[in-house]
Design brief:
The complex is a heterodimer of chains A (745) and B (190). Chain A has 745 residues and is an alpha+beta fold. Chain A folds into four domains: 94 residues, 2-Layer Sandwich (Penicillin-binding protein 1b fold); 192 residues, Biosynthetic peptidoglycan transglycosylase-like (Penicillin binding protein transpeptidase fold), CATH 1.10.3810; 297 residues, Beta-lactamase; 54 residues, no CATH class. Chain A is built from 24 helices and 33 strands. In chain A, a hairpin with a 5-residue loop joins strand 28 and strand 29. In chain A, helix 5 packs across helix 6, helix 9 packs across helix 10 and helix 17 crosses helix 20. The radius of gyration of chain A is 33 Å and the shape is elongated. The model of chain A has no long low-confidence stretch (mean pLDDT 90). Chain B has 190 residues and is mostly helical. Chain B has a domain of 126 residues: Tetratricopeptide repeat domain (Serine Threonine Protein Phosphatase 5, Tetratricopeptide repeat). Chain B has seven helices and no strands. In chain B, helix 1 runs antiparallel to helix 6, helix 3 runs antiparallel to helix 4 and helix 6 runs antiparallel to helix 7. The N terminus of chain B is likely disordered. The chains are: A alpha+beta (745), B mainly alpha (190).
């Protein structure tokens, strides 16, 4: 008697404990959803720059299938002609409805864009590709679905196969165990399990799957408790979101919502009978019946489920026969894979960390709309993996690393980020964390500081290319040198920059003053301390590639700082706006002075240290940029821009060891390889107010005529152009020739 | 801030959108040869014992002209005015106009940022952004977007005048009277 009383008390305590466990698991696990990270949506409109190849890649990334172009989520391609049936997508600023689009791609541009069904529009966004997630510690991934959104056939089929009396039992169903045994004997194999859906859900809450009697007992008790606390529909909805249906690397695919995307690339609400049957069938053994790995088993299992559905009266026999005749219909690859762009996602997470808690990112199911451009990222990764092995051989070659940061010149959106030679490696992110001396990349800021004083400096101003020694108060001496050790006497300022001569740069920097150059750098976005030691004029200051991209943004956009962004918007799981990161511009330099500097940076590409870019880039693509090299080739930099893109490349070793590379032979080949792959506009800045172009003879510091020798068309800030004029002693014949040459250039 | 000033800005920007030209998308586009799958070969670095090649420490390439000549590049490029709005960008600007009229400045900004991404060198888009920020009573960003638009107006005196007058209104509303009259003088001098 006493023993049984103690037993009852113990059981009661145990029940209280189990009750606490099961309710906390149920409440906690029901809502833990990883954040979803999306690429920028591709904008389709007449004139959009996109190649057929990159459109196909983009469609594949967004889970589109090549097919008839009629079913939502499919497209048809015939040469450059595309028919695309979009699925529609709810963006933070409104919905893009389902549409059928027709377009041609000619010369890497969209032409003849039209909407053949659905709401008409001149510009349409494709659904954005999902490029990653921020996962809870247990690495479960899911897309939450609500019971009322789910096709009615799914829960009915699930109950027909797994738990016929779900709505009438109290958590466990002893009768169903017997029935299941009977059904299994009749079929000659296991078609039904004895566990109720509630028991399966409870089982899913625990990580171990050992089938001890104690476990079974606990499961049964917890199932009863769960049923006691919650409504049937709540339990069913949680089951639909909880059930394990596959594995992608370390990430588990939970719930029918994600499984539908993962196996078919389609939304759950769009699934057909045969697809629903496959997913229901897979509950029994997601890895055993994996339709990608074991299609035969999967199809058998699916057809068995179809028969069960038919027996239960859910579908008629004609429909069942048709469904059995169909192929599995799974997509070749999962529509996205985890962590395809680890370096980029790393930057996204750091930007998110300013406004969000890590725990919320891991569990609140936020939707993060980033600025990643998959086509640009592809080109950037390719440029590094293809170029790096050619730059050096042996041990140096093995040790060589590289990064590439690409931004949209006028928006500051980070379009691509490669953190090392293995773009899939999620470790040290050089683009963000490798702070290295920037070498000659600093020179444009020195010359800009000078050019902002048009009464003292123009592009034509002669600067001395002659060595000198600085002696400091403590007796130390500094004697800067040109890289090639030569001295050229006097050189015009524009050439001193385009050829990256050191001595003129230091002289100009000391003349305008190191503090003034530092002030310019600060205005352009350098937030870290900068030493006032004159060697900073040759780039002893260290920065990460992303910081370099930030400060070059102002040079590329006529003096407007544009903060770099990786995120456009963050919404909650229901699509409600949480944060928006808007475009910002801030004028930090005189556009006229920047225009002059941009001239010299274009000259760098055409006549100076950057001209080997045109080995791989056709001359039509006008570019501007600057090389940078540090002692013994420890850092090879190139930063430059076209009309649309700004890119910063760095090549060097993690151990800061020497290489035989310069900016022109290391980073520039990576940079130009990237630029050569992307359809884009050339750089052609608008002449700002207060700037005019004049033909001059820089050697004589005078205006001259276009056809004269040494004539050069240079921009001047109005009032700073030379006043005297020299004319060349050209004959009439020579003048005419010069005139014709000008005409046909 | 002065309500009258804001009203003036709104009218001016409305003029801009009505007058905004809808000619084709701006500028020629560079097309990679054969697509990214068959991009041209990059320059190859010399192989072998690099230590003996002192010249490689030089950034200046004139002493080591490679056998292969780079393609003769064109002269530094420039243009007299920014790009005209493409029909796609114009359709977004029109949507933004509708939202602005209904008092949804934030919605208008979202549309205009989308337009700016596809037409980043069009002065009109920045002037419209400025108008939307004025409507949202954010005059700091409004002034910056006007300046950005002006940097792209080039020799288009219609845009220049509109921009300087817009800037004058915004500066006056911000209490910068000297800056406002300076901007007005610029407009008058055109």
């Amino acid at each position: 008697m006493r023993v049984s009383a103690i037993g009852l008390v113990l059981l009661a305590c145990w029940m209280v404990y189990l009750d606490a466990v099961v309710t906390s698991r149920f409440e906690g696990r029901r809502f833990e959803v990883p954040s979803r990270v999306y690429a920028r949506p591709l904008e389709l409109y007449d004139g959009a720059g996109v190649s057929s190849g990159s459109l196909e890649r983009e469609l594949a990334l967004a889970g589109y299938r090549k097919g008839d172009g009629v079913k939502p989520g499919s497209y048809r391609r015939n040469g450059g002609h595309f028919i695309i049936s979009t699925r529609g997508f709810r963006f933070p600023d409104g919905s893009e409805p389902r549409r059928t689009l027709s377009l041609n791609i000619y010369g890497d541009r969209i032409q003849g864009f039209s909407v053949s069904s659905g709401e008409n529009a001149a510009i349409v966004r494709l659904e954005p590709a999902r490029i990653g997630g921020i996962y809870p510690a247990h690495k479960e991934d899911r897309i939450l679905v609500r019971l009322e959104e789910v096709p009615q056939l799914l829960p009915k089929a699930l109950m027909a196969v797994e738990d016929r009396n779900f709505y009438s039992h109290f958590g466990i169903a002893p009768a169903s165990i017997g029935r299941a045994m009977l059904a299994n004997m009749r079929a000659g194999q296991i078609v039904q399990g004895g566990s109720t859906l509630t028991q399966q859900l409870v089982k899913n809450f625990f990580l171990t799957r050992d089938q001890t009697l104690l476990r079974k007992g606990n499961e049964a008790l917890m199932s009863i408790l769960l049923e006691w606390h919650y409504e049937k529909d709540d339990i069913l909805e949680t089951y639909l979101n909880e059930v394990y249906l596959g594995q992608a690397g370390t990430r588990s695919i939970n719930g029918f919502g994600l499984a539908s995307q993962f196996y078919f690339g389609e939304s759950l609400k769009d699934l057909d009978v045969h697809q629903i049957a496959l997913l229901v069938g897979m509950v029994k053994g997601p890895s055993y019946y994996n339709p990608r790995r074991h299609p035969e088993r999967a199809i058998q299992r699916r057809n068995l489920v179809i028969s069960e559905m038919e027996d239960a009266g859910l579908i008629d026999s004609a429909k069942a026969a048709r469904a059995r005749g169909l192929s599995l219909g799974v997509s070749v690859k999962p529509s996205y894979s985890e962590n395809r762009y680890p370096a980029y996602i790393d930057l996204v997470r750091r930007h998110l960390a300013r406004d969000y808690k890590e725990a919320d990112l891991r569990s609140e199911g936020l939707r993060i709309f980033t600025t990643l451009n998959p086509a640009i990222q592809y080109a950037a990764e390719y440029a590094i993996t293809d170029t790096l092995p050619r730059l050096a051989s042996g041990d140096v070659g093995k040790a060589l690393e590289a990064t590439l940061v690409v931004t949209a010149k006028d928006t500051g959106e980070v379009l691509a980020l490669v953190g090392g030679k293995d773009p899939q490696f999620a470790g040290f992110n050089r683009a963000l964390d490798a702070n290295r001396p920037i070498g000659s990349l600093i020179k444009p800021f020195t010359y800009l500081t000078a050019l902002e004083q048009p009464d003292r400096y123009t592009l034509m101003t002669p600067v001395l290319d002659k060595s000198f020694t600085l002696e400091f108060d403590d007796g130390r001496r500094w004697q800067p040198k040109n890289y090639d050790g030569e001295e050229r006497g006097e050189v015009p300022l524009h050439r001193a920059l385009s050829k990256s001569y050191n001595l003129p740069a230091v002289r100009v920097g000391l003349d305008v003053g190191v503090p003034a150059v530092i002030k310019t750098l600060r205005a352009f976005g350098v937030a870290t301390p900068i030493s006032e030691y004159p060697s900073m004029l040759l780039g002893s200051v260290a920065m990460s590639p992303v910081t370099v991209a930030q400060i070059y943004q102002g040079l590329a956009t006529s003096g407007f700082n544009t903060p770099l962004r990786t995120i456009r918007e963050v919404t909650d799981s229901a699509g409600g706006a949480l944060s928006r990161y808007s475009l910002e511009v801030d004028q930090v330099a005189d556009p006229a002075a920047v225009h002059l500097l941009q001239y010299a940076m274009q000259e760098t590409m055409q006549e100076g240290t950057g001209r080997s870019a045109y080995y791989s880039v056709p001359k039509e693509l006008t570019l501007a940029g600057k090389t940078g090299t540090t002692d013994d080739g420890r850092d090879s930099w190139f930063a430059g821009f076209s009309g649309d893109l700004l890119a910063v490349a760095w090549v060097g070793r993690d151990d800061n060891g020497p290489t035989a590379l310069t900016g022109a032979t290391g980073a520039l080949p990576v940079w130009s390889r990237f630029m050569a792959q992307v359809p884009q506009h050339g750089f052609s800045p608008v002449i700002p107010d207060g700037v005019s172009y004049h033909w001059v003879n820089p050697e004589k510091q005078a205006l001259t005529d276009e056809y004269c020798d040494n004539a050069r068309l240079l921009p001047f800030i109005s009032g700073s152009e030379p006043t005297q004029r020299v004319s060349c002693s050209g004959t009439l014949e020579r003048k005419i020739r010069g005139w014709f040459e000008g005409l046909f250039q | 801030m002065s309500r009258q000033g804001v009203f003036h800005v709104g009218m001016l920007a409305a003029f801009l959108s009505l007058a905004g030209c809808a000619t084709g998308p701006g500028g020629p586009i560079y097309v990679p040869a054969g697509g990214s799958e068959r991009a041209p070969e990059p320059p190859q670095a010399a192989e072998g014992k690099d230590e003996t090649q002192v010249w490689r420490k030089s950034e200046q390439t004139e002493n080591r002209e490679p056998e292969q000549q780079p393609q003769r590049s064109s002269k530094p490029s420039y243009q007299d005015a920014g790009d005209a709005l493409s029909p796609a960008a114009l359709s977004l600007v029109r949507e933004a106009d509708t939202l602005l009229k209904s008092g949804d400045a934030q919605g208008a900004i979202v549309r205009l940022e989308r337009a700016q991404r596809i037409a980043p060198r069009s002065a009109e888009v920045y002037f419209k952004l400025s108008e939307a920020y004025v409507a949202g009573n954010k005059l700091g960003p409004a002034e910056q977007f006007t300046l950005k638009g002006l940097s792209l107006a080039g020799s288009d005196t219609r845009l220049q005048r509109a921009g300087w007058l817009l800037l004058a209104d915004i500066r006056r509303a911000r209490g910068n009277l000297a800056g406002a009259s300076q901007a007005e003088e610029r407009a008058a001098a055109l």
